[in-house]
Amino acid sequence: MDITDEIISNGNENSLYGTLGIHVEEAGEGEATAVLEPPASVCWPFPERPHGGILFTLMDTTMAWAVFSLLDPGHNCATINMDIQYILPAKGEKFFCTAKTTHQTGHLSFVRAEIKDGDGQILTIGQAVFRIIEMDLDGFRTSS
What we know:
Blueprint: H1 5-12, H2 15-20, E1 22-28, E2 31-36, H3 52-68, E3 75-86, E4 95-104, E5 108-117, E6 122-136, E7 139-142
Antiparallel strand pairs: 1-2, 2-4, 3-6, 4-5, 5-6, 6-7
């Protein structure tokens, strides 16, 4: 699917991204990048150190956009498994996540990602499996 600036802009308007400070920068050809500028409210228990769950959400979001960029219209994806390793404590005002789809089968996509701080130091790495789902008027249903 061609991920236009309009699609990314619409995605970035959702309340979850706004609350957490997530902004998707780009997505296409099985890759995606997103930035986290966490507000103080998600930096707990220490200032300028976002909670690990916020980093998890940043990574999950970025990986989903990478998968989404490969899908046909009328399809989306859902995380079915994700594993993340926290290598170093996250400290700072801005964090950068990159994700790349590494393999795709009929109904599954496999993705790897990493989060770096403003100095380019890797803070977290992770991998996930996403289920490709077909969208219909009644919500989501699994593709057959």
